[in-house]
Each structure stands twice: as C-alpha cells, then as structure tokens.
Amino acid sequence: MGNPALVDPETIRTTAAEAWIWGFALLENYRTLYPQAIDEADPRHVGGFGVFRHYPQPFTPANTDVVTPNNDTPYSWAWLDLRAEPWVVEVPATDRYHVLPVHDLDTSYVGFIGSRTTGSEAGRYLIAGPGFTGDWGQGFDGVLRADTDLVGILGRTYLAGPEDVPALQRVQEQYVLKPLSAHLGTPAPPAAHDPVWPVWREEVLDTLEFFVFLDFLLGFFPVLPAEADLRRRLAELGVGAGDFEPAALPLEVREAMQLGIADGRAELERAAADAAATTGSAGFFGTRAQLGGDYLKRAVGVQKGLYGLPEEEAWYGGWIVDSEGNRPPDASQHDYVLRFPAGQLPPARFFWSATMYALPELQLVDNPLQRYSIGDRTPGLVYERDGGLTLYVQHKRPADAEHSANWLPAPEGPFSVIIRVYGPDQAVLDGRWTLPALTPR
C-alpha cells in the first residue's frame, strides 16, 4: 500500500470520484445481499448462502426489496459463496418462461439459464468462481465462470395469474442448488473463513464509509485487467487490502476523498437525468462484455432498476412525459389513454406487460382491483375489431365496463408506466417498433 499523504489532493479527488461511480454497483448489490444472505433477523433473509427462497405469490405494494418490482415473473432469490468450491444448479423441463440470471458482485451478468438461452429441457449447470482450477467432472449442460467469489441469482418464472400459483410453485421447487462435492459424492473441501460482514446502513453511500464497504467487498473481487489501474490507485489510498480505516488518514486526504464522493454523486445524478429522457433499456444491463468500461452507465442502470435484464432477454420502455409535454405524467391532473394500433402490440416471443409505479419511489400502486400491471395475459381485455388495444390509465375506476376491463390503475399523483417485452422481436431492439403516446383525455 502506498502512502496517501504523498498523493496530490486533486488526484485523490479524481480517483475517489471514479471509484465511487465504479463501486456504486457493488454497494447497491450489497444493500440487497446483506439482509438476504447475512442478517438472519431480517424478514427478507433467504436462509444464507446456497439456498433458494421462492416468492410464488404476485408482488404487491408491500414488496419493496427492489425498485420497479414486477408481478409478471415472481422471483427466486439465491446467493452463492464460490470460495471453497463451485455450485451446481439444476432446472426442470418446462415450457413455462423462466430465466435464472447469475450476476457478479458488481451486478455484471455471468450468464443466463432459461427459456431464451438454454431452452425448455431439464439441465444441469456449474457456476465456478475465479479461483477454481479443479476438475468438475462430466454431465454438465453448461459452465458459468464468475469473476467474483460471491454471486447472486434473481430467478424469474412466468405467472399467469393468482390461480396459477400452485403450478408455478411446482416449477420453482425443482430449481436445485448443491455444492459440487455433493453432486460428485466426494468429501467437501474446507469451508472458507466467515468474515465480519459490515452492517448495511443507508448513509454509507455518501460518506467515507463507502470506501470501508468497498474495501471489504474487494476481498471477494480479484483484480481484472481492465480495472487494474483504478485498483492500483485505490490501493495507494489504502482501499483493497481489507483494513481501510478513514480515521487513520490525514485530514487533507479525507477531505479530498469526500469531495470526490460528492463529485461522483453529482455525475451520476446528471447522467441519470439525461437517461430519464430515454425510453428504452439498451446498454444499462448486461454481461461484462456487453457493459464494457462504461461504469457510469452501469451505475445509472443500477439506480434505475437494480438487476434489470439485458434487452435481448427483456426490453424495458416507458413514459417520462405525456403527449402534451407534462413531465412526469400525473393522474391527479389527467386521465390517460394508451392506444396500440392494429399490428402494433408489443412484439414478444414470450409475453409483454405494462406495470404502473408511483413516483418517486418506483413501487407498485395500491388499488381496489389489486391490478398492478396489464398485458397480453390479462383476462377479459377488450380488443378493438381490428385487433388494436386501448388501455385506460387513471386513478379512478372508469364508469363503463369496457373501460374498466382495460383499466391500469394509477396513483393520485405522478407516475411511471414501464413496458416489459419478454423475448423482444428484432423490431423492438432496432427501434422499428416504438411505444405509442401516453395521451391525456
């Protein structure tokens, strides 16, 4: 480790800002990992590492683990510690849409097991950490090599509606996790040491404690060639060895790092504001190869929708402004319509939905119908004679039956509607298909 006191304050500030943007995804991921895998007293606890916790029931406004939750595909959460040995994931044969995406500590995707990528047949897959060099045996349908020792799985499985929950549960219960040694029938290797996990607190993101958490997490994240320079500069500030202590730094170093944090936060907020002008999800989520070195865009994606899927799996779009320029749309001021003309419904290989969220918290909206989304699976939708579809987006229930059948309940205030297209057609990906206007009426 270098001597931070010998580094120029402006260089320290620049490094801290860059590292804050780069590390934002790691800390936001830890925000979820800690209650789910570490804090046994938290109701969100999944049971530790190496187990699935399934949520077969449709999401409601009470579910606030992540922003922009959906009830199209109830979740199956799991976290894996790959330090001692790899893990095996088994999935059943099913025609039901599903995806088990595996993500590294920085939210970059390692790979995808599911309908789009591996098909509807039963399969067995190995997930190995960066340090594994042993023999994993035969009989695997695929191997996913992670860049970090801790990985997460946020599985999604299609749900047709409340009456479909028992059938969904039968599929979820066949998602199996086991250590490689258990799969091979060999003795388990020595367990990795159990670290002292820092207790998550919301305020750490904007204080020097950010780097205490980052220092801890980097112990599970070997240096990648593309990030070697930043990691070297962080090491000069004492971050990365596992014993970073801000109080031990000279005052001028602490002040420069704090200014860098503020710079990083400001840059993220500017980029997020610019991204709010876009209607699609291209480039915000994906594998390490897809994301490349654009850490700012990755941070914006994490802020907009943590664990969002890459667009080839699920395309996300929405409205930040209505057809009259009102930003954001506000159901206390207007009722709205969304009309998909004949032949212009979202082209999806699997299915599509439109989900309502209250702003600014981006959570589901309580309503008397308990309808949080609407789409091609919604029973009773009324289509026009030519096949077009009009949705009614408003706070109060429409007076007539036809409009009620096509009603997407909105909060009495600002809102966002997000379209999800699962298995989008190429016309969606290349922009030939576009969203209709959100029109006040």
Features:
441 residues, alpha+beta, Immunoglobulin-like, Jelly Rolls, five-stranded antiparallel β-sheet, 10 helices, 25% helix
The spatial strand order of the largest sheet comes to 1-2-8-4-5
What would CATH call the class of the domain at 40-184?
Mainly Beta
**CA-CA gap between termini:** 64 Å
The overall average pLDDT, rounded, is 94
CATH architecture of the domain at 40-184: Sandwich
Share of helical residues: 10-25%
Question: Which residues sit in consecutive blocks of at least 5 with pLDDT less than 50?
Answer: none
Please describe the biggest sheet, giving its number of strands, its sense, and whether it closes into a barrel: 5 strands, antiparallel
Strand fraction equals 15-25%
Order of helices and strands: HEEEEEEEEHEHHHHHHEEEEEEHEEHE
Q: What's the CATH H-level homologous superfamily of the domain at 40-184?
A: Domain of unknown function DUF1254
Produce the secondary structure layout.
Elements: H1 9-38, E1 53-54, E2 75-81, E3 87-91, E4 98-103, E5 109-114, E6 123-128, E7 142-145, E8 150-157, H2 165-172, E9 176-179, H3 180-184, H4 209-217, H5 228-236, H6 251-275, H7 288-291, H8 295-305, E10 314-318, E11 336-340, E12 348-358, E13 363-364, E14 373-375, E15 389-394, H9 401-405, E16 407-409, E17 415-424, H10 426-429, E18 438-440
Parallel strand pairs: 6-7, 15-16
Antiparallel strand pairs: 1-2, 2-8, 3-6, 3-9, 4-5, 4-8, 10-17, 11-15, 11-18, 12-13, 12-14, 12-17
Mind explaining what this structure looks like?
The protein is of the alpha+beta class and 441 residues long. Among the domains are: 40-184, Immunoglobulin-like (Sandwich), CATH 2.60.40.1610; 311-440, Jelly Rolls, CATH 2.60.120.1600. The chain contains 10 helices and 18 strands. Strands 1-2-8-4-5 form a 5-stranded antiparallel β-sheet. It is globular and about 70 Å long. The model has no long low-confidence stretch (mean pLDDT 94). It comes from Kitasatospora atroaurantiaca. This is DUF1254 domain-containing protein.
